[in-house]
Amino acid sequence: MTNFRNFKFYSGNRYLILVSIETFEKTASGKSWKRQPVEVENRIYDDEHYTNYISSIPFFNNFGDGAYCRGHYGYTCAGYLPVEVNTVSPYREVKKRAAFTFIHKSDLEKAAGYREKEIIEGAKSWKYFSAPDKYRYIEFIAGDKFAVYDRINHVWVN
C-alpha cells in the first residue's frame, strides 16, 4: 500500500489543478452504486489544497465500519501523481470520486489575452463545455466572467 501520509506536492504555482468531485448513492436494492452521480462539484485547487487532500487518505481509511479511501496514481504533465481518490463513507451510504486534472499554466497563458489571464487568476470553478467532444473544451468561471479553453488546439474560444 502506498504511503500517502508524507505526500508533498510543490510546483511553484506552475499548474492549474482541476478537481471534479462526484457523489454517488446506492441503488434501490442497496447492492451497488448508481451509474450517474447525484452531485458533481468542480473546483480549482492550488498545490497546498492538493497536498492536504492526498495526505488525508490514511485518516479516512481508519474510520472503520466498511469505510475506505483509496488513491490511484497516473501519469500527468506534472509527473507520476495521484489522479483519482475514491472514498466510501461508514456503513457504505455514500461514495465520492475525486478526479484531478493537471494543466500547465504556461499553455493557458501563451494564447491568452488580458481578459483570459485575469479569469485564470481569479477562477474558482470550472466545467466541461457542452460540445460533441465533451472533454475538449473547459470553461473557467471567475465570478460573473468566464472563458472557454480548447485543450486539443491550445487556444481560447470566444
Question: What can you see in these coordinates?
Answer:
- With 158 residues, the chain is an alpha+beta fold.
- It has 2 domains: 1-27 and 36-106; 111-158, no CATH class.
- The chain is 18% helix and 42% strand.
- The protein contains 4 helices and 9 strands.
- The chain has a 5-stranded antiparallel beta sheet. Strands 6-7-8-9 form a 4-stranded antiparallel beta sheet.
- A hairpin with a 5-residue loop joins strand 4 (79-88) and strand 5 (94-104).
- 16% of the residues are buried.
The whole-angstrom Rg is 17 Å
Going by helix content, strand content and strand pairing, the class is alpha+beta
In DSSP terms (H or I, runs of 4 or more residues), the helix count works out at: 4
The fraction of residues in strands falls at 35-45%
Largest sheet: 5 strands, antiparallel
Coarse morphology: globular
Uncertain ranges: none
Number of strand elements: 9
